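Hey, I'm writing a tutorial for new members on how sequence and structure tokens pair up, and I'd like a real worked example in the thread rather than a made-up one. If someone can provide the structure for the chain below, I'll link this post from the tutorial.
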Amino acid sequence: YSTSPDIPTEYLPPPPNPNTDFFSSSIAQAEEDHILKLATEEVRRILGENYSKQSVDNALRNTHYDPNAAIEFLLENPSQTTNKSNQNNVSGAQATDIASGFGALLSEETGPSRPTNASTQVPSLSLIQDKKQNFDLPKAKPEEKPWPKAERKVPPPDPPTKKMANVSLENEQKTKTAKDESDAKVAKPKTDAVEERQKSSFIVKQRAHPLDPGLLEREFLHSSIVVVGHVDAGKSTLVGQIVSSLSENSGRRGMKIPGGNLAWLLDEDEVERDRGVTINISVRQITVPASKKLISIIDSPGHRDFVPMMIVGASMASAAVLVVDSTSGEFEAGFSEEGQTREHAVLLRSVGITHLVVACNKMDSMEFSESRFLSIKETLSTFLKQSGFKTGNVVFVPCSGTQGINVVDRVKDNQALASWYSGPSIVEAMDALAKPVMEGQDRPTRFSVTEVIRSQELGTGVSGQVLSGTIALEDKLLMLPQKILCGVKKLRVMGEEGNAVAMAGDSNVSVSLSNIAVGEMSLGSVLCSPEKPCPVATGFKAQIVVVGGGRPITQGYRAVVHVNGASEACTVVKLIEILGSSNNDGGSKRPRPRLLTKGQRALVEVRLQRGVCMETFSEVRSMGRIMLRNNGRTVAVGIVLEVGEAE
């Protein structure tokens, strides 16, 4: 609005008048919004987000923009959520006090566009409301209702100041004191449901009353056997032959099997059937006619890409069947360094399996040659003895899975195999394996999760093996490492429903859980007693044996550790000492070695990327066995001696 010599003054528009309706109302509205914003931030700092914006604004207007008074107003009136029209009106004296506060605020700190010596005239709040109404509302006829108010965009407020109207330094100090005193009164912000369950999980007992000893008595013993071996050794076909003959409730009777492929009974996934390769583990129950023993057969994949799933299946079993292909050249391929026969045997011993049946499958392709069977037996016996299996705990059985010879029943006299073999069949050898260990029922509960299930019968739940302790209906269990407290609704032991309790040694146990979602459960988790939860370790000390012949293990070596069905990235942070090797070096110890090579035993310290449930080998053996794998190969196996760090 500066004058120009070229333009006459009378042709210029008049300069803006601070006392006009628009100018005064806009400035007053901006100042009011600025004070409201500062006061709202102070209230939010103390009360959080428990109250809506409308409730906080109403409380501040009702208390003349005093944060302390607004906090007390909200606490005393928790149901105050709407602003009543009669509460918006303030008296003339109150408006004068507010206006004076505005003037003091502007006089102490002004924006860069406003001169410091400029005097600012702030009208009263009642005048502001009148002007706002005159500016916003159109002239309406007496009989017509006025149009609703439209929100008006105002200039942005000045930067926040150190002081607010009616809030002095003394009030700020009182605000801090009031915050401490009101912590017990103010409702805490809503936390995640998982955090609430975490806090309450450690003060809950597993069960309210002791378990009835009569529930632990059983008429028949249960056992689980895992079937492993090199890819295309005929594992699924062999198990399919057994299941089709002995399973009463397999649900496959009358099913059309293309080309008589018995592997379809185990490989239910379309991808597995199309590729002809087992990818996931499959569990089937059979009843041995002679002993009436209930056995769960776990068919595991044999391809090297799916070794982690094989480890999961082996961790559920108490014994194993190692299937080898007796065909000329196929056995040698599976037993080579690139094959899986060697690695599977080492992994079986690493998870604690001591009893083994070696099924020399596809003997029909070799015309049931005795010399071929003895050659395979001699080669494997030496290797299995070096891997830790005792000679008396290993049984070699020749068979033919496709023809069913010596699988369920013993070989008949009119068959070629009967001329030189008179031993047990595959099923008889499985029946004679060691009974499951029924110890540790008086120890804290540990349940290893091997699969997450969701069915119409059980609902949301998990399946796995009871490592120690007992699980009964209506128990309260803590799932780690998620730290979620959940309840037991239903139990299914070895495929049988209606069980009231599952105890240590039971495998293939399905547990229906409450207070937990499917997305919160994962493979490798552990259900344990809330009173004595298992450690969630991020580091441990272990005794390992190097079984891989690749790159030596050095400090900083990175791998994937497998423990109790869980897998996690890890780093070998320290090589403590070498205990000795398989070369009979007299058991000498070498502290702080630079590297570890194949065959050496050593103590190492390992750090995990995330927490994993584990115990020392002396506490729970199955949770204290580890395997280190790198680039799809097993490089070391061992046991946990100390859980160095725990969450």
